[in-house]
């Protein structure tokens, strides 16, 4: 059944989704994390002076919709959950955000991360910034990331290597200026081991289940 | 390649599609911008400049293209034979009289960047002055490019009863001579 | 380069006052121009110019390649979205406003390999455009009916409970 084509539903927005963009009280003591969600970039770090930092609390929004639409949405989400429960979702792909870049991956892929990146060969990693997950009949799209615990994307660092030698050559004609440098940047190969939908789609997390990126 | 349906899916992605474009009452220069997109394959998400993923476009009714304002009289096409004093300027209406396909062809040719690929891309463009297209080409067509403008109905080609049935505010005097 | 004796290695590298031996100095340049065509390949004075030029191009080309890829992704995403009747600006604005922050590269990959997911994204952006009243959004025609936003794409949400109490 073509859920992706037929139905698109937004589920109640739960706070943890936002939590990754909450500013740290140590760094921005004056800023609180209050404002419109959508809109301009400025709303990510609104400066409301004079307010102390308040921790993010979860809030469940009520649906003020017609019965028919609510039924339609609930039905769709139930279908998705049912498929996940019966393991009929097929092979999944996920869009993950790693080291400033997005990768569309599926299990058994190898991704190459350019530049310096801390993990060492043999480390097993769970990618938490999952922007989207797609299956045979449905896709879950995060705004901007999917709630923690809904999807697990796991990978293993396979190899660390250097790139081929890149020649950085500068020549200014008639000015006796010539510089040559040889660069080899770091490459990290990560094997994606598994992509799984663990949680229930549309489920409301526990109220204190807010995790913030701590510095 | 699992089964026969997936094979067909791949054919659908990689084969050349034939598009039909009706140039009747269309601006050739605006149309050229649209047509070249299809010729190069810019309308596909698999596009790559080296991939040769362009489609065929069959343009009919090239004879009935329209130009803005005074373009028919003011636009000149330059041609040089290569000999001394061999340059000639032909006005658009003159060129169109001589060859009704030429203006459309040149418009599409000029809308593309001059590179080695341009002449091969042009070979996928099929121009026809009128609606009668050879059968072997009609057979291939599977898609239509929408026209840029709606073609208005001309009064002299409207059915007689429709003209007569049109609501009028006043009637002409009986002794009025219509020139 | 392979040096069969130590003496050759010294001649090629270690003579600091004179620089490397002439033969080996030239040999290095000729290694770089081995795949050139014409006199640029074997005549030293032309070869060194060609080698310098080639190295400069290589340095610049690394930046140009990134730019070219961005242009290509843009082209592919706009082609993909126009297939579903949504112009690229509407897709881009609609997705950003509904906080779907997929990059251009990801979108182009989705357009090619996951067409159904991509179609869903275009429809989402279209609906957002209708809800927010983008300019001339009505010219696109009938918006998709299968999108249930539950009003949550535009609803204002406050993150702090202190704010709501005040």
Element-by-element helix/strand order of chain C: HHHHHHHEH
Structural class of chain A, by secondary structure, is: mainly beta
- The CA-CA distance between the termini of chain C, in Å, is 76 Å
**Distance N to C terminus of chain A:** 44 Å
Query: For the residues shown, what is the average pLDDT of chain C?
Result: 86
Largest beta sheet: strand ordering of chain A: 3-2-6-7
GO cellular component, one term (chain C): ribonucleoprotein complex
Family (chain C): Belongs to the bacterial ribosomal protein bL20 family.
Keywords (chain C): Ribonucleoprotein, Ribosomal protein
Protein name (chain C): 39S ribosomal protein L20, mitochondrial
In short:
The complex is a heterotrimer of chains A (215), B (179) and C (166). With 179 residues, chain B is an alpha/beta fold.
Question: Key features?
Answer:
heterotrimer; A: mainly beta; 4-stranded antiparallel β-sheet; 11 strands; elongated; disordered N terminus; B: alpha/beta; Ribosomal Protein L13p, Chain: A; 4-stranded parallel β-sheet; two-stranded antiparallel sheet; 8 helices; Ribosomal_uL13_bac-type (chain B); ribosomal protein (chain B); Ribosomal_uL13_sf (chain B); Ribosomal_uL13 (chain B)
Can you offer a commentary on this structure?
The complex is a heterotrimer of chains A (215), B (179) and C (166). Chain A is mostly beta strands and 215 residues long. Chain A has a domain at 69-212. Chain A has helices spanning 3-6, 67-85; strands spanning 8-9, 93-98, 101-106, 110-114, 124-127, 130-134, 139-141, 151-162, 166-172, 177-183, 186-197. In chain A, the strands form 3 sheets. Chain A has a 4-stranded antiparallel beta sheet with strand order 3-2-6-7, with no helix packed on it. In chain A, strands 4-11-8-5 form a 4-stranded antiparallel beta sheet, with no helix packed on it. In chain A, strands 9-10 form a two-stranded antiparallel sheet. Mean pLDDT of chain A is 74; it is low at 1-6, 11-49 and 206-215. Chain B has a single domain (5-165), classed as Ribosomal Protein L13p, Chain: A. Helices cover 33% and strands 15% of the residues of chain B. Chain C has 166 residues and is mainly alpha-helical. Helix content of chain C is 64%, strand content 1%. Chain C has helices at 6-13, 22-32, 39-42, 44-83, 88-97, 104-113, 115-132, 161-165; one strand spanning 147-148. Mean pLDDT of chain C is 86; it is low at 156-166. The longest helix of chain C has 40 residues, at 44-83. Chain C has one domain. Chains in contact: A-C, B-C. The interface between A and C is large, with 56 and 46 residues.
């Amino acid at each position: 059944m073509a859920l992706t084509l037929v139905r698109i539903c937004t589920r109640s927005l739960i706070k943890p989704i936002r939590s990754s963009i909450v500013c740290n009280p140590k760094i921005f003591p004056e800023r609180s994390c209050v404002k419109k969600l959508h809109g301009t970039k400025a709303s990510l770090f609104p400066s409301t002076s004079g307010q102390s930092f308040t921790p993010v609390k979860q809030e469940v929004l009520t649906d003020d919709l017609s019965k028919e639409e609510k039924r339609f949405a609930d039905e769709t989400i139930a279908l998705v959950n049912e498929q996940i429960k019966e393991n009929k979702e097929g092979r999944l792909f996920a869009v993950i955000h790693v080291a400033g870049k997005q990768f569309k991956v599926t299990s058994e892929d190898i991704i190459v991360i350019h530049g310096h990146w801390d993990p060492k060969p043999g480390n097993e990693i769970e990618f938490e910034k999952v922007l989207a997950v797609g299956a045979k009949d449905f896709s879950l799209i995060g705004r901007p990331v999917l709630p923690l615990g809904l999807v697990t994307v796991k990978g293993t660092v396979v190899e660390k290597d250097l790139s081929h030698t890149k020649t950085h050559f500068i020549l200014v004609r008639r000015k006796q200026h010539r510089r040559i440098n040889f660069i080899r940047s770091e490459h990290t190969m990560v094997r994606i081991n598994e992509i799984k939908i663990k949680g229930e789609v549309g489920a409301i997390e526990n109220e204190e289940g807010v995790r913030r990126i701590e510095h | 390649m699992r089964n026969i349906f997936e094979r067909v899916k791949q054919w659908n992605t990689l084969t050349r599609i034939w598009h039909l474009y009706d140039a009747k009452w269309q601006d050739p220069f605006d149309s050229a911008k649209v047509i070249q997109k299809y010729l190069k394959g810019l309308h596909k998400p698999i596009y790559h400049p080296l991939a040769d993923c362009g489609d065929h476009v069959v343009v009919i009714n090239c004879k009935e293209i329209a130009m803005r304002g005074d373009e028919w009289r003011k636009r000149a096409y330059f041609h040089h034979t290569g000999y001394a004093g061999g340059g000639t300027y032909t006005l658009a209406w003159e060129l169109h009289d001589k060859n009704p396909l030429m203006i459309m062809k040149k418009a599409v040719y000029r809308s593309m960047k001059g590179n080695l690929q341009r002449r091969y891309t042009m070979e996928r463009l099929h121009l026809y002055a009128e609606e009668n297209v050879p059968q072997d080409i009609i057979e291939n067509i599977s898609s239509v490019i929408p026209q840029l403008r709606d073609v208005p109905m001309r009064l002299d080609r409207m059915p007689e009863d429709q003209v007569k049935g049109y609501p009028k505010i006043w009637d002409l005097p009986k002794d009025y001579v219509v020139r | 380069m392979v040096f069969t004796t130590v003496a050759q290695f010294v001649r090629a590298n270690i003579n600091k006052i004179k620089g490397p031996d002439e033969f080996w100095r030239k040999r290095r340049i000729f290694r770089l121009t081995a795949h050139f065509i014409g006199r640029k390949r074997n005549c030293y004075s032309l070869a060194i110019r060609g080698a310098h030029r080639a190295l400069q191009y290589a340095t610049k080309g690394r930046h140009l390649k990134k730019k070219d890829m961005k242009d290509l992704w843009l082209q592919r995403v706009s082609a993909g979205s126009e297939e579903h009747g949504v112009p690229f600006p509407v897709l881009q604005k609609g997705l950003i406003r509904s906080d779907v922050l997929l990059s251009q590269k990801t979108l182009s990959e989705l357009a090619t390999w996951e067409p159904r997911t991509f179609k869903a994204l275009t429809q989402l952006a279209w609906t957002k455009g209708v809800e927010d009243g983008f300019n001339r959004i009505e010219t696109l025609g009938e918006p998709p009916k299968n999108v249930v936003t539950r009003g949550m794409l535009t609803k204002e949400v406050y993150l702090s409970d202190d704010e709501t109490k005040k």
